[in-house]
Amino acid sequence: MKVRNRVIVILLAIAVILFGVVQFGIIPHNEAEKEKYNLEQLDPRTHDFSNIVKYKSDYMGDSSNIINLFYNLPLSDLGLRFELFPDTLTLEVDYQSEGKSKGEEIIRSALLYNAMAAFTLIGNLEQINFVFLDESYQAKRSEFRKEFGSFADVINPDQWNQGVQDKLKDKVYTQQAADKLLANFEK
């Protein structure tokens, strides 16, 4: 009987130790990693393109697909509303915040990134209007094609990193590309 009781006590001690390791070590570590990943998704320089490839579509008419795409891109934390104009193949993304609230550099690189992602993944999307409470920008597929080349060339996540993300890490390039590709417009 004593041996059996000792085995039970030892097993109980092991269970308590394992519970403590999982509850106070593994779970907090996993939560911290998840939070870090989520924060990286808000920055175009660290965003995980492979996470949004599933939203690839030949047509912009699938509004839920476009909405899900933009909710998984940088600036999604600003609150979004969408309007589709199928006659002109235009998407309007209304951010429920001022653009300057994030800082000009982040806004510019995120808009370049988001436009490039949308043009790459939505086959017939020709224009995107990004509307903030304080400013508005317009991006056109034809201009992005001139700057970045064929969209089919960057659909692979490794090519995306080299052809888009690495370029956006250069502040001078981002400034020049934004000046060239993002036209201010009045709504």
Unreliably modeled segments: none
Rg calc:
23 Å
Distance between the termini: 84 Å
Number of helices: 6
- Give the overall average pLDDT: 88
Query: Structural class, from secondary structure content?
Result: alpha+beta
- Major β-sheet annotation: 5 strands, mixed
Spell the H/E element sequence: HHEEHEEHHHE
How much beta, percentage-wise?
Answer: 5-15%
Task: Quickly list its features.
5 strands, five-stranded mixed sheet, 187 residues, alpha+beta
Task: Give the SSE layout.
Blueprint: H1 2-40, H2 63-71, E1 80-85, E2 90-95, H3 104-121, E3 127-131, E4 136-140, H4 141-148, H5 157-168, H6 171-181, E5 183-184
Parallel strand pairs: 2-3
Antiparallel strand pairs: 1-2, 3-4, 4-5
Helix pairs in contact: 3-6
Please sum up the structure shown.
The chain is built from 6 helices and 5 strands, in the order ααββαββαααβ. With 187 residues, the protein is an alpha+beta fold.
Q: Your description of this structure?
A:
With 187 residues, the protein is of the alpha+beta class. 52% of the residues lie in helices and 13% in strands. The protein starts with a helix and ends with a strand. Strands 1-2-3-4-5 form a 5-stranded mixed beta sheet. Strand 3 and strand 4 form a beta hairpin.
